[in-house]
């Protein structure tokens, strides 16, 4: 009887081991990135222990990459703060490529994703300051070859509508974002005849719906006004080569970090062959380091101010609705009427994410991450609220803000 029980236990254990082994093999073979999620907490411990390099004593800046890795699933992070006096503080966390390989350095390259839109906004505002365009100009005035439209509301679209995501484009169709289709190329900017047959989702100016198509069209406006391709214009005007800022392509540069796809549902490194990066130039095309982006935004802010200026009184920012507060193409956050304001933009591409913030005192904060956010259901303004609180404390300690302004409200 004991022998029978022993054999039964042996067969049971063997069956369980075989079943678990097949299950693990299936998971690893079919969902390798999801399996990698199991090990992320242990990798985060290793990264925080062996791969941190900070030039700053600012505890709040150190906390930024630590939180991104430990709690939000990032594989590597660059965080920088460029003060109003242009003093640079940096904090890097993680490895450029494989675990225990080369640590992240200040000069390593990330994809800026939609923070590129800040540069497009700055280019548009520069043309406005030169008297070459007005924000009230209609889009069709720059496209004289297009005369007939199925939806006559297309004629109403202005430069301001495009800047502020109010042009009437639906970001997501049944097939996905029109600029990021996986089975076909986007119609903008190479097939602008599509404007003649499309139907807008709402009347221009009626509401705000985030639109990548709008920023593609702004890139085309820049090309037609200046006579230069968008890429060459912004490279020249914003001295991108001297800053080692480049445009992304369907390959990774040698100095570019490894992107982490474990928290992606649909994408891995093969996404490079799916997107038309030339068409994405004016909305998600730039790459570089966090320090390089901070330096560029600092120069834009301190040499021209635009587009980092307060909204008109008719467009107040608030704690609750900051995600809808867009002025001159820049998201704005100012929870206190007379307090500090933040001008910012977030970005996402498969395996990477970013946020760039210009504060009303002239400082710039940039965070670049390898890895999609594992807490994708968290409030969209969580990062900006956290950065606001930390900057409030920082400027209070520097004597810029009175002490009471840094204390939390009841």
Structure write-up:
The chain has 11 helices and 11 strands. With 410 residues, the protein is α+β, with helices and mostly antiparallel strands. It has a single domain (45-406), classed as DD-peptidase/beta-lactamase superfamily (Beta-lactamase, 3-Layer(aba) Sandwich). The strands form 2 sheets. Strands 1-3-2-11-10-9-8-7 form an 8-stranded antiparallel beta sheet, sandwiched between helices. A hairpin with a 2-residue loop joins strand 9 (342-349) and strand 10. Residues 20-30 and 404-410 have low confidence and may be disordered.
What topology does this entry show?
Layout (H helix, E strand, L loop, with lengths): L1 H29 L1 H5 L3 H11 L1 E3 L4 H12 L5 E7 L5 E7 L15 E2 L4 H14 L29 H5 L48 H15 L3 H8 L8 E2 L33 H4 L1 E3 L1 H15 L21 E2 L2 E4 L8 E8 L2 E8 L4 E7 L11 H16 L13
Antiparallel strand pairs: 1-3, 2-3, 2-11, 4-6, 5-6, 7-8, 8-9, 9-10, 10-11
Helix pairs in contact: 5-7
Q: Which architecture name does CATH use?
A: 3-Layer(aba) Sandwich
Can you tell me the overall shape?
A: globular
| SSE string, helices as H and strands as E | HHHEHEEEHHHHEHEHEEEEEH
By DSSP (H or I, 4+ residues per run), the number of helices equals: 11
The major beta sheet can be summarized as:
8 strands, antiparallel
The fold-level CATH name is Beta-lactamase
Tell me the helix content.
Answer: 25-40%
Query: Low-confidence segments, ≥5 residues, pLDDT <50?
Result: 20-30, 404-410
Tally of separate domains: 1
CATH class: Alpha Beta
Compute the CA-based radius of gyration.
24 Å
Strand content: 5-15%
Please provide the count of β strands: 11
Structural class determined from secondary elements: alpha+beta
| CATH homologous superfamily descriptor | DD-peptidase/beta-lactamase superfamily
What is the first-to-last residue Cα distance? 72 Å
Give the strand line-up of the largest sheet: 1-3-2-11-10-9-8-7
Taking all residues together, what is the mean pLDDT?
87
